[in-house]
């Protein structure tokens, strides 16, 4: 029976081939790609990232990405995040970098971005906070860029620095958020810096945000001196928002110098918005005998960056510990199901491949191919995959799914790929879904899923990568995905004749 079937199939493929050589072809391809990564340094670092691709019920494609990091510590902390992707020619990319330097320092950033059909959105949040004695500084820097179907571009930016010097106490915080879609912008900036010192203190901030012709900037500086080591307090605050066509910004400066001897307070502030409802004020209190306001620039400090000092070693094996693939074969179903598990640091991997080809059923021919490949590393890892192709009488159905997990310490990776090709009467629909999730840190977690199915002509895709990592010293994660759909239509000879 099996022998008969094989002979039959070869015959059909041959006939198909000869028809194809004389037919015209239409080929369409859509690719979806995305990348997200987060790196961080500090005494305690948490990072995570995810990418997901999906197909909506109306057939449009979508992707979303997240990248998030949070670092706290003594001295310097930093988080660097980037996340973006594309659906065909429509794309979005974002970066957000935060660094803080002080006795107690925190850096945080978070990116979400999505392309859903033709709709593009992004949301970038950044936060730096420091407290301590002496000099402190928080810096944030982020941006977004978008491109629509027609190749038009839009960019957004947000930046901020806040810091100060004071021998008794200094505190600074800066926050920005920039939420954009193709035709809307909501951006917020907030910073506060306060310092107290004996003899001198200084607080400063400088920040801005915007997109296209809409932007706001705020900067402020208060610096105070007392010649007899009296107490000096300085404070600057700024707050701004762009919400659609509304813009509001407020800046406040405050200084106080007390003690015997001569005191000087200098304040400079600039707030710029391209609309009028902005408000700025400068206040100075105390027994200062000199006060002036004008343009002042300060160079605060050189930023020391503590690099991650930890190096990781990972035991990895050459072999798959367990691999089980079943292939029950019936005339019109080919399917596989397997799992690979490792608990001792060896890599897990799995692959399957299913082929089916049926000809002459109601004068139609059907073909299908499902393939999956997956691998994972880590102390504990596992890979699970399923696939089938099936001819149900009217259509060719298929599914290909591969999922890989890994947890452990040090650099680990999960990598999956799923391919599905179904064909009816020479019309092919091919999809390839691929994802890689990698992470480095003390406590890492990687998860990669690639899935594609086509049931009665309804195609479903899920390409999901999720990574998280935490650690002392440094932690980093990245997730990338790409999905390609191809549709090749071969008009039959009959169609060619009818169209003439
Ligand atoms: C990304 O898209 C998927 C599919 O629509 C959805 O389930 C998921 O919640 C989205 N993720 C985020 C962070 O919005
Ligand atoms: C960052 O981590 C710290 C410590 O775990 C936590 O208290 C804080 O809420 C986190 N910040 C954000 C914005 O998630
Ligand atoms: C801010 O907007 C003005 C126009 O309103 C533009 O000339 C300027 O280049 C913008 N600045 C930035 C940094 O984008
Ligand atoms: C932005 O404006 C919209 C519409 O006026 C309003 O609903 C929303 O609350 C505003 N958002 C912020 C953060 O102010
Ligand atoms: C205060 O300033 C005056 C004028 O510059 C100067 O003569 C005096 O020595 C200063 N006093 C102190 C305590 O520095
Ligand atoms: C201010 O921004 C608006 C858009 O909000 C823009 O149309 C206008 O040209 C800008 N004005 C100036 C003076 O840059
Ligand atoms: C401030 O700086 C601007 C440009 O650098 C200059 O035109 C202006 O004269 C300065 N103002 C003062 C008070 O120094
Ligand atoms: C295990 O997987 C990791 C990550 O893909 C790879 O770098 C390493 O070479 C693999 N080890 C072996 C023995 O194949
Ligand atoms: C198959 O094609 C032949 C010749 O064109 C035709 O006679 C027959 O009715 C068709 N069978 C079906 C099930 O469509
Ligand atoms: C596969 O690994 C994940 C993450 O380590 C774990 O949650 C899950 O239970 C594992 N599955 C199996 C069957 O071991
Ligand atoms: C679809 O996939 C099959 C199997 O991998 C391949 O032979 C064929 O060339 C692919 N077709 C297209 C249009 O990419
Ligand atoms: C991370 O690993 C380092 C080196 O093994 C260790 O010193 C540190 O305590 C670990 N931190 C956590 C949070 O597990």
Strand content: over 45%
Q: How many helices does DSSP assign?
A: 2
Strand and helix order:
HEEEEEEEEEEEEEEEEEEEEEEEH
- Derived from helix and strand composition plus strand pairing, the structural class reads mainly beta
Rounded mean pLDDT is 77
Region (Disordered): 25-47
Keywords: Signal
Signal peptide: 1-17
Biased composition (Polar residues): 25-41
Task: Give a verbal description of the structure.
This protein is mainly beta. 5% of the residues lie in helices and 74% in strands. It has helices at residues 2-20, 493-499, and strands at residues 25-55, 61-87, 90-116, 119-147, 153-181, 184-198, 200-211, 214-226, 231-243, 246-258, 263-273, 278-286, 291-293, 329-330, 333-342, 348-361, 364-376, 380-391, 396-408, 412-424, 427-440, 443-455, 458-490. The chain has a 23-stranded mixed beta sheet that branches. One 2-acetamido-2-deoxy-beta-D-glucopyranose binds next to loops. Residues 25-47 are annotated as: Disordered.
Jot down its keywords.
500 residues; signal; binds 2-acetamido-2-deoxy-beta-D-glucopyranose; mainly beta
Break the fold down into its secondary structure elements and pairings.
Layout: H1 2-20, E1 25-55, E2 61-87, E3 90-116, E4 119-147, E5 153-181, E6 184-198, E7 200-211, E8 214-226, E9 231-243, E10 246-258, E11 263-273, E12 278-286, E13 291-293, E14 329-330, E15 333-342, E16 348-361, E17 364-376, E18 380-391, E19 396-408, E20 412-424, E21 427-440, E22 443-455, E23 458-490, H2 493-499
Parallel strand pairs: 10-12, 11-13
Antiparallel strand pairs: 1-2, 1-23, 2-3, 3-4, 4-5, 5-6, 5-7, 6-9, 7-8, 8-11, 9-10, 14-15, 15-18, 16-17, 17-20, 18-19, 19-22, 20-21, 21-23, 22-23
One 2-acetamido-2-deoxy-beta-D-glucopyranose (NAG) binds next to loops.
